[in-house]
Specification:
Blueprint lengths: L8 H14 L9 H4 L6 H10 L4 H14 L2 H11 L7 E2 L11 E11 L3 E13 L5 H17 L3 E9 L5 E8 L2 E12 H9 L4 H19 L10 H10 L6 H14 L8 H6 L1
Parallel strand pairs: 3-4, 4-6
Antiparallel strand pairs: 1-2, 2-3, 5-6
Helix pairs in contact: 1-5, 1-8, 3-10, 9-10
């Protein structure tokens, strides 16, 4: 039974699948060559393993996860933005078009803005986290919103944050040219408050979050295992370690890890191991 009233099960499932597909090459398996493509920091791995009392398998898995995760925020940004194409009165312009806005929300009945009356259009700039904009970026975004208000006196502009410091819909105040600026129609809004506004359902974001895990799980199953990576890094490191004359397997693996970054450094050069790595 589908409980969400603001998006159909089919649309939501298709959107989740599209987001998973955006992960793209990050879902490809890691071998040792790919693992060390940008040269890992062996010293950090040694510290992490020892301080956190972890196994080599755990440390290697964590590093692979870190490398995959570096660009995943863009994919989750896709999820947060593009879902609104399925919600009534919302429009998601193609990238770079229609002023470069992430979402445009229109309602002919009017959209109530706290302490600012009613407008018929809201232009949205969306960010994943509240701290992802530096002062220059914030200033540029605010000026863009000011310009929009100058060309359309029946609109508001929102900076919508997926991960905000708190649930909020407040006047956005920032610094432009070293001066503090703000406008009642330029708002800083948390994602839950934006969902509530566009759907008319106060807990719409919460409801979406409650169904999301099962929809992702079913979507992954539908891919029939084609997206499940089979990483071989730890097996390759153990194989390299077994070829060394070091009694301790832990130290032998550590030496194999050292060779990833220090293979040409004084004292680390070993023709056989160097060739394999």
């Amino acid at each position: 039974m589908w409980d969400l009233t603001f998006i159909t099960e089919e649309d939501f499932t298709n959107h989740v699948k599209a987001t998973i597909e955006k992960y793209g090459e990050k879902l490809e398996s890691f071998d040792l060559r790919r693992f060390n493509k940008n040269i890992v920091d062996p010293i950090k791995l040694i510290f992490d393993k020892t301080v956190y009392q972890a196994s080599w398998k755990e440390i290697v898995s964590n590093e692979i996860f870190r490398q995959r995760d570096k660009s995943n925020n863009n994919d989750i940004g896709y999820f947060h933005q593009r879902i609104f194409q399925y919600i009534a009165n919302c429009h998601v312009p193609p990238n770079g078009e229609e002023g470069g806005w992430d979402v445009i929300f229109e309602n002919e009945k009017g959209i109530e803005i706290p302490n600012a009356g009613s407008v018929h259009t809201v232009y949205v700039e969306m960010k994943n986290k509240h701290n992802t904009m530096n002062s220059a970026s914030a200033g540029k975004t605010f000026i863009k919103m000011q310009n929009q208000l100058l060309t359309d006196d029946d609109c508001a502009c929102f900076l919508v944050e997926a991960i905000a410091q708190q649930s909020q819909n407040i006047k956005w105040e920032t610094t432009v040219d070293k001066k503090k600026v703000g406008h009642k129609l330029i708002r800083r809004v948390s994602l839950d408050q934006f969902y509530a506004l566009v759907t008319g359902q106060e807990d719409a974001f919460y409801q979406m979050c409650m169904v999301l895990p099962s929809v992702i799980e079913n979507a992954v199953k539908d891919f029939e295992g084609t997206i499940v990576p089979h990483d071989t890094v730890i097996d390759e490191l153990k194989s390299l370690a077994s070829e060394q004359n070091i009694a301790s397997e832990d130290l032998a693996i550590a030496m194999a890890v050292y060779m990833l970054g220090f293979g040409n450094y004084i004292g680390f050069i070993s023709d056989n191991l160097k060739r394999e790595v």
